[in-house]
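Entry 14. Ran structure prediction on the chain below.
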Amino acid sequence: MNWAIISLIGLIIIIVIANVKNINVGIVGLAMAFFIGTMGGMKLKDIYNSFNLQIFLRMMGMQVLIVIARNNGTLNIVGNLVLKAAKGKAIRLLPIILYFGIGVASWFQLGLSNVLTPLIFAMAFELGFKDPFKLGFVTFFTMFAWGISPYSMQGLNIAAYAEEQGYVLNLWHGAFNMALMGTVLFIALYLYHGWHKMEPISLKEREQVKLGQDQILTLIGFVTFIICNLFLKIDMMVTPICAGVVLLCLGCGDPDKVVRGIPWSTLIMIGGMTVYVGVISGFGGVELISTGIAAVANRTIAPAVMTMICGVMSLFSSGNGVVIPTMSATISSLAESIPGLNISTMFWAVVIGANATAISPMSTIGANSMAYYSACYSPTEKENKKSFNKLFLYAGLFLVWASVASSLGIVSIFK
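Output, structure tokens:
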């Protein structure tokens, strides 16, 4: 019995069960890992040793710091500063300020996207836009254009996956490449929605949160985290959790609310799927995928093929939790099968493909966008279906652009 093929079929079953039954994909993945792993003769120790504790702790530490900042109003203050800069005659600059503001914040894992995304859809409704994506399109590029940096969770994750295979990635190269590709799409939609012709609109005032001691201390915590990582080279899993505990001791947040506010479902999703990816690798499923890609690709088109495969997978599943850990694990084997293959380009192709279709309504960003749209607009079934289809169309267009960019080498301009 070919357990490599069975393990890959198991991955499809995981995605189907998680979506149809609305079960956390990490829980399903963990269960499938133990079921297929033990049936195939793997030892339990080998199965649970696939759990990547470093990635889990890095994500948890950053979420503690972000939840504190969100709960005590620090992130709202930062968001207000961004919004105030785009009032009155500066309305044409609103998407641009939001795009670059959220983008730079994403580079440093400051979580502005989570705070501003529902507000952006609410603003679109208040401005009288019948199409919520006239302004909401800005949120589509948070992960696609700005998901990679030495400080972002996704950047650290892909670097860790590369290190497991013996490669070192320059995350700033990936950051600049993805920002370039995403900005091209942003400009296209900016012009498509006619923001360059927008007349001044009076924006309603948001409730202002005053900058107090808690907010100042929280900002100091973020600055300390950045300095410790940038200059002292302290690992990502150390500084945020320590800064978070100090802030809680100083009364800058409610410990119970912080624990409840941590997105445990996301942590479970990524943790469970890293275990299942270990099972796939143990049975040779990774090598089977790489052999299939190598059979149809050479070093020129391999990045485009990888981007397309990852993009299609991400249409229906989590890029972070499923696509990136699964497909990045194939790269070392591909490098052995395809002489002259650019390793870093292939890792960026995985990330770009996974993020290009994240706006699919069946993926994370797209699903959130649909939820915020529904909450603000209370659409009819017909309107809801129209928006659903529009997101699928956007995802398809973005994937085409990402694949073309990969084939032309745009994903590795900065290297």
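The mean pLDDT is 81. Will compare against last week's run tomorrow.
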